Amino acid sequence: MEPLGPGDPARIAGYRVLGRLGAGGMGVVLLGRSAGGTLVAVKLIRAEYADDASFRARFRREVAIARRVRTRYAVPVVDADTEAAAPWLATAFVPGPSLADAVGATGPLPARSTRVLGGMLAEALDAVHTAGMVHRDVKPGNVLLASDGPRLIDFGIARALDDTVLTAADVVIGSPGFLSPEQAQGRPTGPPSDVFSLGCVLAYAATGTRPFGSGPVEAMLFRTVHDPARLDGVPAQLRPVVEACLAKKPGERPTAAEVRAACVEDDTERGWLPSSVTHLIAERSARMLALPEIDATRVDGPAPAESSGGPDGEGSPRPPGRRRMLFFASGAATLAAAGSTAWLIGRDDETGGRRGEAAKPVLRLGLQADLSGPERDAGKAHEQGVRLAVAEHNARDDNPFALALTVADDRGDAARAESAARRLAADGRIVAVIGATGTDAAGATLDAYDEAGLTLLSVLDGDIRHMNRIFLCARPSNAMQMYPVGQYLGLHGLDDIALVDDESEYGRQVTRLFAEGLRGTGRVDVMPQTVPAGGRDTGARVRTVVARSPGAVVYGGEAEGLAGFARALTAAGYRGPRIASQAAHDSRFLAQAGAAAEGWLVVSTATDPLAAPSARGFARAFRARYRTDPPPFAAEAYDGVRLIASCLRSLDRPRPTRHDLVPVVRRTTHQGVSKDYAFEPENGGYVGTGVFFYRVTHGRFRFLGSDPRKV
Predict the structure, then answer these.
(1) In the predicted model, is pLDDT for residue 380 greater than 90?
(2) Looking at the domain that runs over 1-93, which CATH code has it been given?
(3) pTM (two decimals)
(4) Which stretches are transmembrane (predicted)?
């Protein structure tokens, strides 16, 4: 990182700018930090380009493209403002070096590292191509290295495959030495162009030199089109796949998926990078810990305080503490479609005004949930909590408006979710939406809600890739949910931690920063292990874990693989501490794992309304309405309605609109029955801890509270 230049800003929106990460012809890349301590890389566009209407259109397209890519090996966009005087976008910050820097500092990568790199980058490109896009600038400088894999960055010249409006013929776009023959000739490009560039990158990683040499740009372009690649130093086991990628004719190259299959690595126990590069990553990560302190901040509500406790008026508002750079104590560390949609409109308990009274203005909320698909239990809990909150709101005489509800069942399907979101967004009466139930469904809705300026509040999704100007995450992100686990391990003096993921994107988010945080203490040995859900070798992989005699086993994958893992762990004779992430807080885990679930410690962002004192009134009201105990996430959905209603009241307007709500809701603090709520103004992320411990006891989740010292 370099110091800021005289023309660089000190702040961009809600981010404090700490230094320069790089610069190019179109702008600069700056290191920024949010009020909550999150580090981001901010691409700031130069003013002369921002004044060009065609460039601004391309930049809008770039942001939309980057948000559509779903892969663990691409850096996600977390925030952007395409309409600012100097437009910008922020992506998650990866402290590791680029491939170009690593090769320059430590030399070419070993054959195994290059093969693993090829498989991971091919997986990223396969996701890019599946999304209907071409990256068009795959080069060593756009590949960042991390201990858990590379990250493909900079979609600045990426284009959708069907985009013909913004593409010009006879224009060379890309980086000489790593672009394809069709790019060098200014011809149309498709996915095979990225595969050619990938072959160039792998050749560079293995040899430290460009396969078509260096020198004047014109000479490199000529050699790319007419000369064979120089692959003398490429290891024999890699040469066939690299040669196939570098075929001159696009139709003769393999697909990204085929490259990935050809680069499969059988030995997954060892780290993928040589020690010289891992040391470089560690050094750069350590520098991030020496950055200046975070500015003191306070998140204030937009209106005078009012009671917002439970149905009985319990509790009084208090602003939650600001989120800081998180440090583990005592051995913990920095953690750092098409298809029909079911609609239910305006039941009797959702319309305002009692008989004989003057009608109040009616403001409509949307609920998008999976009510009939694989996550229907969670979706039903959302609906019950929302309907209870709406009914209670409408029963009070002192509310200046009534609430109505439109419910969309998207069945947890991404295509249906997008269709449902567009229908909800098209209804001008709707001022905010709560949903969706699943991660894929939530991601599919963002473009529709963003275009409509319609606030989306999620009580279940913690994927940082989904954050944008209209998104509110009413729970900690997937990575931040593991912070209390680090505290727990430190308080109990547990080291030699077996950290298990299942190769899912969720598993990567949960385990990556957690592993780096634990390693950062210098006192904890992290033993990573991948156990794919449903894999035939689960037993063998689990026995490998147990053979290392870990002090604790932490599972960070999705629920689908946990039951089998738990059974295999019991069968292997392990009896030590077993800890699982949010995904394990699911009745299906209890049913599928049976006796093997007993004793597991589970962290969850859902409170237990039957055990938490703040939710007792809610639990009584829920039982009275539904004749059953409230399930997980019903209280959080209930809180979501009350939070939005509080924001609408604070506007003090006869009929506030969705556009009135967007700038206000992120500045609001709310004391809910489940937990306190506040949000990072720049990206809608949750501010606070908001995580609870449960222990599986006699086949049930026993609530232990939020304090790791009492677990």
Answers:
(1) yes
(2) 3.30.200.20
(3) 0.58
(4) none
